[in-house]
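Batch manifest, entry 17 of 40.
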Amino acid sequence: GHTGTLDPAATGLLIICIGSATRLSDHLTGMSKEYTGTLRLGLTTHSYDADGTIESESDVPELTQDELAQYLLPYTGTIEQIPPMVSAVKVGGERLHKLARQGKTVERKPRSVTVLNFDLHTWDSPDATFRVECTSGTYVRSLCHDIGQDIGCGGILASLRRTAIGVHRVDNATPLDQLTTIDEVTSKLLPMGEV
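Output type: structure tokens
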């Protein structure tokens, strides 16, 4: 069992539980997550990311890095977030992404999420790189979309990498292509108590 879905274009840490350790999945899924990513201003898409169909394009206003950083501030702490239509959230027993593929849009209820840290690293218009630490269930795509709406030019998530789940960091992980034999997998397993 895995411990938290990544969007198809996202990269980074995915913890896999094997055998009796699968009972730890729920505990690991609920841990805070850390991501690095790129916000691209001047675009909106139906999925809030670079994989979606472009809905609008706008000029990006001239902003300094400090000015842009001010737009991130309201998205720290406990916030109400509306999940994107292209997501695994269920409404009326159906996953939103299935409804979106049928061309339907339904009302989504806001959900409380907590953004522990949201730091702007670089700004080279139209792209800004950032690091965000948040609770499980936070949609980083929605953060990018909402910031773009606040600025008035639109924004999408151009890239995303999960760098941590709780205390587990991608720097200590093994790339999937290096796990080609049972012995290689076994040598990388962590004891359940350590996890």
